[in-house]
Amino acid sequence: MSDWNVSLVTQESLSAGRSTRAVVEAAIAGGVDVVQLREKDRSARERYHLGRKLRGLTREAGVTFVVNDRADIAQAVEADGVHLGDDDLPVPAAREILDEDAVVGRSVSFVDDAVAAERAGADYLGVGAVYATGSKDDIDDDEHRIGPERVGDIAAAVDIPVVGIGGITAENAGPVAAAGADGVAVITAITRADDPETATRELAAVVERAREDR
Q1: Which residues are catalytic?
Q2: Are 170 and 202 in contact, with CB atoms under 8 Å apart?
Q3: CB burial class (10 A; 0-12, 13-18, 19+) of residue 87?
Q4: Which is higher by pLDDT, 14 or 137?
Q5: 182 within domain boundaries
Q6: What mean pLDDT comes out for the span 132-158?
Q7: Long-range pairs, 138-141, Cβ under 8 A, ≥24
Q8: Deepest in the core among 24, 33, 99, 190, taking most CB within 10 A?
Q9: What does the pLDDT read at residue 133?
Q10: What is the CATH classification number for the domain harbouring 97?
């Protein structure tokens, strides 16, 4: 894939009473590039059934679909790939479960970890938390944010796409892309927006402008 401008990370509990399916449909209409199934509070079975529905929507729209953390669920729902964190399977192990051409992403916050993930075979990096965010219990204040500067340091150190994540909105996405990120990944900037379709479109425009100007 070549476009990483906007990735939607799903979480129905943060979707202002809307279903994840409705949010994904709106984001697709707004031009989202990647949909990542998160839904941390749901069982594996529930994520599987939701993943099958989202796989159908994304496949029809030509949007890349990845599953957060779980390579087994990604395989079961025929997702394009998986996004892995520190507590998940190593990149090579996940790739053994999935198809050879699967997209495998890795979350990192430091340059050394980014370089190691690339060497392990990651296809892209989710870098953050860029700004303070309330969507993760362990990253909820300013002292944990890495800022756009480190995003730029990581982007300069690797040759694979870098996606900034954590507290990103249309108002602050520009500096992240300007620093070197290929795109941004968001939850509430889309899921809680009054109009998720428009919010997706606005985020994409901000990222594209910043990338063109750098």
Answers
A1: 38, 107, 136
A2: yes
A3: exposed
A4: 14
A5: yes
A6: 79
A7: 139/166
A8: 190
A9: 79
A10: 3.20.20.70
What does each C-alpha distance from 24 to 20, 45, 191 come to in angstroms? 6, 20, 9
Residues whose CB falls within 8 Å of the CB of residue 82, separated by 6 or more in sequence, listed in order = 66, 67, 68, 69, 70, 71, 74, 94, 98, 102, 103, 104, 105
pLDDT digit string, tens, across residues 67-92: 999 999 999 999 999 999 999 999 99
Task: Dihedral sign for Cα 37, 43, 44, 50, please.
Answer: negative
Percent of the chain whose pLDDT exceeds 90 = 91
Contact 127, 146 (CB under 8 A): yes
Number of residues that make up the chain: 214
Choose among 144, 207, 127, 134: nearest CA to 171. 207
Q: Which residue has the tokens 């520009």?
A: 174
Name the percent of the chain lying above pLDDT 70. 94
CA nearest to 126, candidates 168, 63, 84 = 84
- Give the pair of three-digit tokens for residue 84: 């892995």
Q: What does the pLDDT look like over 167-185, one tens digit per residue?
A: 999 999 999 999 999 999 9
Structural domain boundaries, residue 30:
6-213
